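lol ok so funny story. i was supposed to be doing the assay writeup but got distracted and ended up predicting the structure for this chain instead. priorities right. anyway since i did it might as well share w the group, maybe its usefull for someone
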Amino acid sequence: MSYVEVPGAKVPIRMWADPASVEDVAMQQLRNVSTLPWIKGLAVMPDVHFGKGATVGSVIAMHGAVCPAAVGVDIGCGMSAVKTSLTANDLPGDLSRLRSKIEQAIPVGRGMHDTTVDPGKIHGFPTTGWDDFWSRFDGIAEAVKFRQERATKQMGTLGSGNHFIEFCLDEAGSVWLMLHSGSRNIGKELADFHIGQAQKLPHNQGLVDRDLAVFVADTPQMAAYRNDLFWAQEYAKYNRSIMMGLFQDVVRKEFKKARVTFEPVISCHHNYVSEERYDGMDLLVTRKGAIRAGSGEFGIIPGSMGTGSYIVKGLGNAKSFNSASHGAGRRMSRNAAKRRFSTQDLEEQTRGVECRKDSGVVDEIPAAYKPIEQVIDQQRDLVEVVAKLKQLVCVKG
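and the output, tada:
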């Protein structure tokens, strides 16, 4: 489909989704965002659903302002994937040992490493800039500096919720490694701090939703947020890089005879801010549950823990601010999923996948998400499909 234009207050709302299929509270959030004085465009992805302040699955382009709640609390959350030389023929019938080895190598949930991971010991990890990155920790908000030890030990860890590590097959029988995570607790604490700061500012007192509080250009508060935001986005990228390196090491050891090789890693944020230029204007583009899909740029659009995921290539559609969806998108809340589904339902919907099937992950059941094929079909003018993946192993926190 192409987009549908819905009237907004200051800008039209361009939707790659049927407005009738979007919950009323999410539509109201979109209208609220369109009232912001600084907004220059709003694009809505097919995985759109209710979020904090702004919907998940929206691309908010503003001039001289940024909304920290619209970025979200998992700053820099995103995906990484890599194609391997392994094929279906190399795999054993039982993958439970592989899952166990992944869980031993990469802490999940609230877990962290016992000591800081040395990136120099991770095969192929790009250590350029690593020391500079950590030296900049001294420049982030004073309120979160006491979390430095936790931040160093959580580097290279998964977290919980919808974060995952997967061992997948594409339709040609090639094995891919894929993972989804962000900036862990340090990103959340930075986000919470700055959201609180923004809500106190005088220019935000008359907003329709206090969660839409913004920082504006040329103020110390904006400078401080941008500093911490971009640092946290870098943390998230390094976090995924280290996990992918640890994941690759596990796969090398488990499939020694195959002498596994890896293609270049594809990586993309989907909760972040980017400085981009459209129609001759410099804009701050917030993708909240959306990936960049510039012409020829690779991206990753996952489904759920029992369905397929897609490697895509962007078509560079400026109407969407060169964006595409970040996943299937939830169609029911976590609490609604827990009320509606049982562990037996989870077992049935994840049949054939080596993964957790207990009550702790029922809220991640595939039926709680929109059908990924439909979401992909709704954005054919935003991306082209490069590969479709189906997970064999899924690790969750």
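The chain has a mean pLDDT of 96. The first strand starts at residue 4 and ends at 6.
back to the writeup now i swear
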